[in-house]
Amino acid sequence: xxxxxxxxxxxxxxxxxxxxxxxxxxxxxxxxxxxxxxxxxxxxxxxxxxxxxxxxxxxxxxxxxxxxxxxxxxxxxxxxxxxxxxxxxxxxxxxxxxxxxxxxxxxxxxxxxxxxxxxxxxxxxxxxxxxxxxxxxxxxxxxxxxxxxxxxxxxxxxxxxxxxxxxxxxxxxxxxxxxxxxxxxxxxxxxxxxxxxxxxxxxxxxxxxxxxxxxxxxxxxxxxxxxxxxxxxxxxxxxxxxxxxxxxxxxxxxxxxxxxxxxxxxxxxxxxxxxxxxxxxxxxxxxxxxxxxxxxxxxxxxxxxxxxxxxxxxxxxxxxxxxxxxxxxxxxxxxxxxxxxxxxxxxxxxxxxxxxxxxxxxxxxxxxxxxxxxxxxxxxxxxxxxxxxxxxxxxxxxxxxxxxxxxxxxxxxxxxxxxxxxxxxxxxxxxxxxxxxxxxxxxxxxxxxxxxxxxxxxxxxxxxxxxxxxxxxxxxxxxxxxxxxxxxxxxxxxxxxxxxxxxxxxxxxxxxxxxxxxxxxxxxxxxxxxxxxxxxxxxxxxxxxxxxxxxxxxxxxxxxxxxxxxxxxxxxxxxxxxxxxxxxxxxxxxxxxxxxxxxxxxxxxxxxxxxxxxxxxxxxxxxxxxxxxxxxxxxxxxxxxxxxxxxxxxxxxxxxxxxxxxxxxxxxxxxxxxxxxxxxxxxxxxxxxxxxxxxxxx
Length: 698
Fold this sequence. Notes:
This protein is of the alpha/beta class. It has 3 domains: 5-264, 2-enoyl-CoA Hydratase, Chain A, domain 1 (Alpha-Beta Complex), CATH 3.90.226; 300-480, 3-Layer(aba) Sandwich (Rossmann fold); 484-628 and 632-691, Orthogonal Bundle (N-(1-d-carboxylethyl)-l-norvaline Dehydrogenase, domain 2), CATH 1.10.1040. The chain is 48% helix and 11% strand. It has 28 helices and 19 strands. The strands form 4 sheets. It has an 8-stranded mixed β-sheet, sandwiched between helices. It has a 6-stranded mixed β-sheet with strand order 1-2-3-4-6-9, with helices on both faces. Helix 8 (213-227) runs antiparallel to helix 9.
C-alpha cells in the first residue's frame, strides 16, 4: 500500500484514510484507488472487522477524480473508481463515509456508495462534472436520484453548484451533520450502528421515481436544452437520470458509462478542461517567483466616480477594503455614490445580498473632493475619461500627494501605460488595472505590466485580483493590450462584411449560433456606439491612408444613434424593450456606403462570416503571443472567456483554432489575405506552428 492511503483497525472498525493533498484526488495511476480497494478487501476478509469508516486526511474528504488523468490511458493493473465502487456494493459490513470540506464529483460518488454518510458542518457537497463538459461517471447519476429524488438530483448535476452539508441532510444525501472532531464523531456513529445491529443500506437497491416520467423528461429536455445551448453534457445528464427512473441499476450504470465516454472525448469537454487548467496557470509569471514579497493593501482610493469608477470601487468594498472615491465637485461625487447605493439596493431587492451586508459595504465608502484626502491610500486607481492628456495630469498630481510605496494604477483600456508612468518619479509603482464593464460584475482584470513596473507591484496586483474576486491576466503595453487589440479585428471584419453584402442581423446570428450571447452589432448597441466612435476619431490622425476603412459605424453615430441608450443604433428599440429590431434606415445606409466605396454587394456565406470574425481574433492573438504581450495562448483564451463572452464550450479563440487545426486556419487566413489585403497578413507564429503540426496550446 502506498502512503496515499492509510488503513488501520480501531477496535472492530476498519478506518481508511485518504492522504493525497491538497484535495485527496482519486488518482488511478498513482494507485490511490487500488489502495482503497485493497483496504476494503483486507477488512472484508477479516472477521475481527465489523464495519468501515472512510475519511479524508487534511481538510476535506475528496475533491474528486484527478482531472489530469481524463482522456489518458489508465494503468491496466490498477483499479479505477468504477472498480472500487462495484466492490463496495458487494461489501456486507456497514460502510460510513465521513465527509468534510469540499467533497465533489468522484469524491461524492465514493461517499454515495457508502451505506451511511456523516458530514461536518460547513462542508460543501456537489457533482460539478458538468462544468468540465462531462457527467458523474461512477454512478452519481444513478445513486443521487435514488437518495435525494429525481428533480433535486437533476438540478444538482445540471447546475454543477455545491450545496452545504446542512442542505445535503435536508435532501437525503447525508444522514447526520456533526461539529467538532469528525473522526471521533464517525467512530461514535459507526459503533452505534453496530450496537443497534443496523444492516447495510445500498443506494443501488433504492428506487428513483417521479410522476409522469415521460412528460417530466420531455419538459426537462426542452428547458435544459434552451438554457445550456451548445453544451451536450446537461442533456446527457437528463438521459442518465431518466435511465435511473426507467431502468434497473446495472442498465443505468451502463448508460451512464456510455454517455460519459462520449462526452469526455468531445471538443466541448476538452475546451472546458483546458479552461480549468488555464485559469490555474494564469497567475504564474515566469520571472516573478511565487515567493516574491507583496505590498499590503489595507486601503484604496478611486479617481473618478462615474459608472466605471463606482463599479471598480464596489469590488474593494465587497472585499472589505475601505475605499475613498475622489471627484472634483460634490455634485458629481454625490451622483457617483448614489449609483453605487442603487446597484447594491438592486442586489438586495433580488435577495442576493442582505440589507445588513449592504450597509456594511456602503460604510466602507468615503467621498472626497481633494487629492490631499487620498494621500495615505495603499493603492490608487484612476478611472477618468479615456484621454491620455487627462490621465497624465492625474498621475502628475498623484505623484505629488501619494505616500511612498503606494501603487498607482490606471484603468485605461487602450492607452500607453509607459507614457502615463513617465509622468511620475516612481514608474516602478505604476501599472494598468483594466477592469471590464460593468466593473462590479465582470470577472476579467487585465493587469498591464509597464516597462518599469516593479515585480513586487505586479505580484501584489495579481494577489489583489484574487482578493476582489477577479481573474487577473498579465498583459504587456500596446494599443488595446490583449483583449481590445484583438477585438479591433473582430469588429473591423464585421464592418467590412456589411459593406460587402451582409446585414447586422445576419452577422449577429452567425456569431450567436457559434455560442456568443450577442453578436458584434448587438454588443455595440448595448455598450454604446459613441465610445468606439470617440476612439476611432482619436486614432484617425495616425491611420494609414492606404488601408481600407469602413465609414458605416461612424455614419450610424453621426445620425445620433448610439445604441440602446438612445433607442437606436445598429437596430432600433422600442421603449422599455431591449429586443433589437432590424431598421430599414440602417440597411439603406449600408447599401449606400457599399456603393460609395465601389463595392459590389454579394451573398455572403455564414461560414465566411464566422471565419473572418473569429480568425481575425486568432491571427492577431498569434502576433500578441510572438511579441510577448501575452505570456501564454491560454491567457488569451481566459481574457476572451471572462471579458468578451467567447463561448466557454469553445475554449477561447486560440484553443478553438487548435481544435479546427492550425493548418486549416492558416489556409483560410491566406485566402482572406489574397482577397482583402494586408489586414490578413498571416502571423509568423501561426505559419510556424502550422508548418510544424503544432498547436498554440501545447
